[in-house]
Amino acid sequence: MTEARSRSGEQVSIRQYGDGPLLVRHADVIVTDDGREHEVTRPVVALCTCQRSQRMPWCDSTHKSVRRD
Ligand code: FES
To answer: Rounded to 5 degrees, what are φ and ψ at 4?
Structure first.
């Protein structure tokens, strides 16, 4: 299971964005199922939920074309 963590203690929030990604706010690191840590450098990041992104774990908007087909 992917985890979003904050090192500063700030509350991390996660919200589903329509049929697309999960929007994660205030996380400092994303830990994916394989145990890899992905540093977060922006206040809000989008995590892929369709598993088709070329930039996993980040959403690259591929879901838009996949769901249209
Ligand atoms: S949710 Fe956007 S590419 Fe997967």
So the answer is: -115, 125
